[in-house]
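Name: DUF502 domain-containing protein
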Amino acid sequence: MLKKIALLMAQGLLALLPISLTLYFLVWLVTAIETGLTPLIPASIYFPGMGLFAGLLVLLIVGIAVNVYIVELFIGWSGKVFERIPLIKTIYGAIQDAVNLINLGKQQKIQSVVSVKITESIHLIGFVTSHEGAKELFKDEKKIGVYIPLSYQIGGYTLYIDSDQVSPLDIDVETAMRIALTGGNASGFKAGQKTKVPSTVIKTNKVP
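Structure predicted for DUF502 domain-containing protein:
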């Protein structure tokens, strides 16, 4: 009886954990922004929530600015400076890699989702990246770069393989990445679910 109660409690905890952690993170983020920006706002015009509003406004302005060519050049130059400073380059590089991984699909660095054939019965989910790296490394061979993410962690490895060893998958990049990162347990996805696929997927097996 006690084991059954403990099991039910554990199931309840697991059910509430994703929602609870998400709400906790949002509350923490709002509080941090409000606390950090409130001292910068004159007391005569301050009202509760103004710090958060100012923070969101700053993010919007920065988001618009990074699409301006001169600002983009400045940010790129700043990144190169950080990459030359010992210790700082390690921290900056790790954060940059994590951001790049999250933002791969949005930046269109991933061209399509593919199945990489390991054996007759074993396949891996892969993401075709730019062909430029493969051309530089393997000048006389028709290879493509395929990124293979690791489940339940930020990281992965890149395979350079012949294009005829991969097959395009009928699934969008975001959904495929969620499935790969969660070990096939992505929430909100059902087996056999059809998703809209970019037209570039059809060109996966062709190496320019």
